[in-house]
Amino acid sequence: MDNTILELYPNSGQIHPLKNLYLHQLAELPARQPFIYSNFIASLDGRIALPGENRATRQVPPAIANARDWRLFQELAVQADLLITTARFFRQAASNEAQAELPVGMSPDFEDLRDWRINHGLKPQPDIGIFSASLDIPVESLNRYSDRQLYVITGEDTDKEQLGRLTSHSNLKVIYSGNGNQVDARSLRTQLGALGYQRVYAIAGPSVLHALADGDALDRLYHTTAHCILGGTEFDTFIRGEELLPALHLPLRAMYLDQSSPPGCGQTLAVYGK
Question: Of the candidates 142, 177, 185, 233, which lies 20 to 30 Å from 263 by C-alpha distance?
């Protein structure tokens, strides 16, 4: 398999190794801190998840999931101080339906990335922030990540009794952001900055991305498009929520062509943001 990709923009025609491509993207600490970024892979018809076989939850379709995109996903994660995910991930983990562990992955394939963190003075693994209004989070799943600082990010009116049960049985801390049960991403950015976080990687689903976009708290989007059409009537796309008014502007920063994966169709790797 060809381990190179073709740059389409801004310097069309250049050839790059796929490995460490995204490590170069965030090599310099962006001026806006914390810098919040996200990443999705989708089909040409915009599907990021479909119902999984013999599973209750939607999963990244096998037709678009591929090791080359997964490598880039890990490269973005290795640079983060904090990962943002959802309570749903921890529920899926408890029922053995989670597709993977939270990065940085412990596979030998990513040993170089784990070394990169240590060599750059970072903790062995990023901390974890969990968006949740319901607080339906299995404690046993939280304790699998007891080596990291965990936060639940929720609104002021959340269930304090349930919060007490969670925090008394894990190392979970609470970040209140916004009124009601929903998270206000504008105030969240300020709070994360006050906690010292500089790079925040949102690896959650479409509702969290909407909250970040609506709160002007999304600085960059890494978007892989697999060149295939999946169809299906039950699916997730990468953002879900009310219309954004005004629209969030994310100019194209870079685009690459990977002709090797997925086999038979290839994919484009696009970087959008400020």
Answer: 233
Instruction: Quote the CA–CA distance of 34 and 197 in Å, as a whole number.
Output: 6
Instruction: Characterize 196-230 residue by residue with b for buried, 16 or more Cβ atoms within 10 angstroms of its Cβ, and e for exposed.
Output: ebebbbbbbbbbbbbbbbbbebbbbbbbbbbbbeb
Give the three-class secondary structure for 92.
Answer: helix
State pLDDT tens for residues 58-97: 899 999 999 999 999 999 999 999 999 999 999 998 888 8
Distance, in Å, from the CA atom of 64 to the CA atom of 152, rounded to the nearest integer, reads: 31
Letter string b/e over residues 91-122, b meaning 16 or more CB atoms within 10 A of that residue's CB: bbbbeebbeeebbbbeeeebeebbebbeeeeb
What domains lie within the chain, and their CATH numbers?
4-273 (3.40.430.10)
69: nearest Cα among 196, 223, 252 = 223
pTM: 0.95
Q: How far is CA 142 from the centre of its chain?
A: 18
Largest CA distance in the chain: 58
Stated as kind and residue range, the H or E segment containing 59 is: strand 58-59
Q: In sequence order, what are the beta bridge partners of 225?
A: 42, 268
Residue 215 vs residues 147, 192, 233: alpha-carbon distances, Å: 30, 14, 29
